[in-house]
Amino acid sequence: KMKVAVLTSGGDSAGMNAVVRAVVKTAIIKGCETWIVREGYEGLVRGNSEGHRHTNSVAEKGHTSPRVKGTESQETEGFVHNLRFGDGELLKDGTGDHPGGRTLKGRYIVRVGWDDVRGWFSEGGTLIGTARSVAFRTREGRLTGAHNMIKEGIDALVVCGGDGSLTGADVFRAEWPGLVNELHNEGKITDEQATKHAHLKIVGLVGSIDNDMSMTDLTIGAPTALHRICESIDNINSTAYSHSRAFVLEVMGRHCGWLALMAAVSCGADFVFIPENPPDADKWADEMCTMIQSHRDIGKRKTIVIVAEGALDSKLQPIRAEQVKDILSERLGLDTRVTTLGHTQRGGRPCAFDRILPTLQGIEAVEALLDATPDTPSYMIGVRENKITRVPLMEAVKMTREVAQAISEKDFEKAMSLRDPEFRE
Ligand code: F6P
């Protein structure tokens, strides 16, 4: 019986809970045992303190199968209540007690059942917590993580996160045999455990609002973040119109301009700056002013300029919202305000597509784990032309790094061709 654990890592994104739900439910249907790891890789490193292993979730009382009529009240006593009502202290450092008496103290790797993930479709963020773990970046941290997994008997891992988190997954799988050897040689695991855990099955799902991963068309959370941005721009539009003002909006996306570009298209922005298409450092201010003035000349009462947080000019100098504002005020005399949308873009309920995509990909992730052999590569589950795909995780991670490198070398054609292989063809 495969024991599958799922974790969310890096910046949260809408749809991560739907991933956990889909993985847990699919794995149960396929006859696996299901676990969650709290706080991303950090939870793997912290593990379960002695005395807190294999305790008190509904799953451990045997209710692991789909809900059967008549068992609801028993099942709703599930672990989910720990997560829901105990967030805050419980999820931050695992030291709090659940008001109802249950506790997650000292437990980061927790067995879960069908009802534990009920209703998780529509919840924003990630209920099992996430972190950008420093400890897991070290070999020592990964060694402890491997030990904690083996202690609980977990042999398959689903990681949902951005490119940093999936790089971690790739490194973990590559190092795994060495880690197991070391634990075995040090006498920390038995012969039987060393044999049983000789190979790690691992699969990645891309959860990130940035949509910056190569070899997939869309990342989980990006559509919701885009939707949030559109709603904000709609709000700003009405006040901008009233005062005939200009607004410069800074949006997230790290080194990727997808959110900014798609928001500009969705909202009819006057001008947009993205990292992938840096304007001429000596000309962009003039070009922007000419464009915006021409819009004003034909009667437009409001101006919207979108700046991706990673936007650069041709000399690779950052383009900042404040700088754009000063140009619009000084050269065009526009009453201009800056709005940095910040983390409102990342939070909140997932839109429909960020429920559908994680569900389809979560199912595929479990199937990929069940198909995995020591010789198959670890997969990243992607989506290409509306079809769910499996691509080698290592390749996708490598390509994403190469895109960042190409952008930093101003080789934008190469960057675009790596991000979108069809562009290359
Ligand atoms: O990668 C997701 C993201 O939201 C980026 O768009 C942004 O640059 C970054 O994370 C913000 O990180 P933090 O949550 O640490 O402020």
Automatic annotation (TrEMBL):
Q: What class of enzyme is it?
A: transferase
Active-site residues annotated for this sequence = 210
Instruction: Name any Gene Ontology BP term.
Output: fructose 1,6-bisphosphate metabolic process
EC numbers for this chain: 2.7.1.11
* Activity regulation, free text: Allosterically activated by ADP, AMP, or fructose 2,6-bisphosphate, and allosterically inhibited by ATP or citrate.
Please state the protein's primary subcellular location: cytoplasm
Keyword check for Glycosyltransferase, yes or no: no
- Keywords per UniProt: Allosteric enzyme, ATP-binding, Cytoplasm, Glycolysis, Kinase, Magnesium, Metal-binding, Nucleotide-binding, Transferase
Q: Which domain of life is it from?
A: Eukaryota
- Entry's Gene Ontology cellular component terms: 6-phosphofructokinase complex; mitochondrion
Q: Where along the chain is substrate bound? A: 208-210, 245, 252-254, 309, 337, 343-346
Residue sites binding Mg(2+) per the record: 163
Chain positions covered by the region annotation N-terminal catalytic PFK domain 1: 1-425
Q: Which cofactor does it need?
A: Mg(2+)
| Pathway(s) this gene product operates in, as recorded in its UniProt entry | Carbohydrate degradation; glycolysis; D-glyceraldehyde 3-phosphate and glycerone phosphate from D-glucose: step 3/4
- What positions does the entry give for ATP binding? 11, 132-133, 162-165
Q: Name one GO molecular function term.
A: fructose-6-phosphate binding
Under catalytic activity, the entry for this protein gives:
beta-D-fructose 6-phosphate + ATP = beta-D-fructose 1,6-bisphosphate + ADP + H(+)
Summarizing the function annotation, the protein's role is:
Catalyzes the phosphorylation of D-fructose 6-phosphate to fructose 1,6-bisphosphate by ATP, the first committing step of glycolysis.
Q: How does it assemble?
A: Homotetramer.
Which family does the entry's similarity section mention? Belongs to the phosphofructokinase type A (PFKA) family. ATP-dependent PFK group I subfamily. Eukaryotic two domain clade "E" sub-subfamily.
Q: What name has this protein been given in UniProt?
A: ATP-dependent 6-phosphofructokinase
Task: Describe which stretch of the whole protein the shown chain covers, with first residue, last residue and complete length.
Answer: 6 to 430 of 829
